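// run 5 | inverse folding | seed 20
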C-alpha cells in the first residue's frame, strides 16, 4: 500500500506536469498574440504607405515634376514591410502547427502534402538525420576508395549529392511501407 508521502509526491508530480503543460500552452498563446499584434501593426503601416503612394502618384500625374525617386522609395518600403509580414505570418502558422501555401497563401496543417485550395504539392520535409547519415556513408566510401584526383572528387561529390537527394524519397517510401504493414488485413466481407 502506498504511504501518504508517496501519494502526496505523486500529486505534486502530476500538478507539476499539468503546470508545465499549461505554461507551455500559455507561452505558445503569448507568442501567437505577440505575432498577431506585430502583423496588425505592419498591415496598418502598409495601408498608410499605400495611401502615401496614391497621393504621390496623383501628384506626379497632375503636376509638373519628377517624383519617380519618391515613388520608388515608398514602393521599396512597402515591399520590405510585406516581406516582414510574410515572415511573421509564417511564424504564426508554425506556432499553430500550420504552414502557408506558397502559391495561394492558404493555411494548411504542417503534415499536408497538397494544398486543399489550389492543389500545390509541398516538398517532402528533409529528414536531416537521414541526410546526415547518407553524407557520412559517402565520406566513408570516398576514404575507402582512396579518391584523390580532382576528377574523382567531382564524380564522388556528384554521386554523394544524388544519394543525399534520395533521402526524402526514401523516408516517404519507408513511411508508406510502415503504414501498409500496420494496416489491418483486408476487411472481412459484410
Ligand atoms: Zn494553395
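// decoded
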Amino acid at each position: 500500500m502506498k504511504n501518504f508521502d508517496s501519494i502526496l509526491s505523486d500529486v505534486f508530480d502530476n500538478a507539476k506536469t499539468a503546470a508545465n503543460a499549461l505554461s507551455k500552452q500559455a507561452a505558445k498563446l503569448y507568442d501567437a498574440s505577440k505575432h498577431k499584434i506585430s502583423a496588425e501593426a505592419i498591415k496598418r503601416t502598409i495601408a498608410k504607405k499605400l495611401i502615401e503612394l496614391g497621393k504621390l502618384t496623383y501628384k506626379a500625374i497632375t503636376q509638373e515634376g519628377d517624383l519617380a525617386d519618391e515613388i520608388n522609395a515608398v514602393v521599396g518600403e512597402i515591399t520590405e514591410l510585406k516581406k516582414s509580414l510574410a515572415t511573421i505570418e509564417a511564424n504564426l502558422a508554425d506556432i499553430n502547427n500550420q504552414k502557408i501555401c506558397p502559391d495561394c497563401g492558404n493555411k494548411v496543417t504542417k503534415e499536408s502534402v497538397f494544398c486543399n485550395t489550389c492543389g500545390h504539392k509541398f516538398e517532402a520535409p528533409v529528414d536531416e538525420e537521414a541526410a546526415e547519415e547518407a553524407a557520412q556513408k559517402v565520406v566513408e566510401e570516398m576514404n575507402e576508395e582512396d579518391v584523390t584526383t580532382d576528377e574523382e572528387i567531382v564524380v564522388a561529390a556528384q554521386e554523394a549529392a544524388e544519394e543525399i537527394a534520395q533521402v526524402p524519397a526514401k523516408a516517404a517510401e519507408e513511411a508508406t511501407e510502415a503504414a501498409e504493414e500496420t494496416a489491418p488485413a483486408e476487411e472481412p466481407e459484410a
